[in-house]
Amino acid sequence: MKLQTLNSPLLENLEPMLNESIYHFLVEFQKGRTDFSELGSIFFRLTQTMTDPPLEFIWFYSALTFQTAKSSNLRDPHNFLLSLKDLFHSLVSFRIPSDSSYLTQVSLLAPVLYQLVNLKFLISSCKAEIEGLVDAVVSHIILCCNNDLVEQEVRGFKSSVSWVSLVPIWIADQVNENQGRVDGLQLFFPLSTEDIRQGINEDSGTAYLAGIVMIESFLLRLCLMFDSEASRKELHKDVKSYAAQIIKGFKKNPTFLVMLFKLLLEPNLPVAELLSSTDELLLKKLLFDVALDLGSFLNYDTSSWLSDVQYKDIAILWLFLTNSALQFASENGDHAGVGCYMNGFSASQLPLQIISWVTSGTNMKPTTPDISSPKDLIGWLLVLEKQGLKICDYSISGLHEKTLKDKKSMGINNGVKDGDSMIEDPPIQINGRRKRDTMGFECEVQKQIKVIKCCHENQGDGGFRSKNEVGNAVSDQEMVDMVR
């Protein structure tokens, strides 16, 4: 069989065929058809002739074969799990060029994560098998991240088909069964936050998709650990250790770190259907512990895998994360946690690095106040931003306003023991919590036939720079007024 490299003209000719096939599948699936083996064989031959098959073509072929197999195995959880394992092995075995981005290999696994999360929702009898497959997914991602593959995604022209267009294929059975509420992206990425999903649009490439795959596999694997019969103390140790290992393996993708930090700035983790509110709170506390440890190695000398802009953005998020962790520990009566987080802040070089970036980014040298806590440093940055200094890609006031709103929505009560920070009675009432079997739907089935289009715009314009001259002095009272 002769292999062909997809140049721009050839791919442009094939894309209308893919679009028509997507539409054809959705229409026929809605009518009740479940066997798409004939269409699947066409796309199998097509992908096998490509030396570098695009993710969209791989997904379409894989979705056709999986949906056909799934229709006959859905009533038997063990057979369904076998079909899911076959999907995983099929996706990781696709011929990807050696000079391809590792991001593509990671991104391919998004449908596997989607199916695994839904399987966990519905089935408890296959715990060991589900756990084993999640481990295989995580291990494969770490392997991809450590391969010497290029990190940038490259496409020589504007494609008319994005991976977002394939989402309706994967969720077609949910749409038919549940008659739709929740938009397709929320169904497909059940362990992502609204903020993460709002970052998706037709131009979202594999870097962003890979970040979502990493976040969801990370959360799912840690949630599965709460099903163990280990003691609470052992669970603390195991979750923190495994979380640290995964973060170390995933850190090559800066998008993952940004998503992780922003995830922890939310009032709730997106795991309400996998964990009780008590366990969710415990997981968040443990993730604060692990994430804040990143401050010990996120310094300019050892962060060569980050660009300057990425490093600055992550450092600012780390600052807000530290402040949120201190609030979280204080409001839960976790005095040991407060001391630990303050020690970590004092020991990190990131606060001094942030100050250096700011003071060297303007001709008017602002006076550096006595900064002894994250709250002090955030207050200083807020005053400078108000005076016109652009700190980073993020709005400091926007991040601060978000954390204030999140704090008000959490309704935290004391319920944590010092020392181990062992959380017992549910200390938090989480608004909007829902169970899987009562999840309603709002979208009509016909909306899922159309290509999903997300038009959310990302904002931000550059790194540390001054738009206006910045005043010299910032009083303690100004900072107190800004950070409440």
TrEMBL record:
It comes from the Eukaryota. This is Uncharacterized protein. It comes from Lactuca sativa.
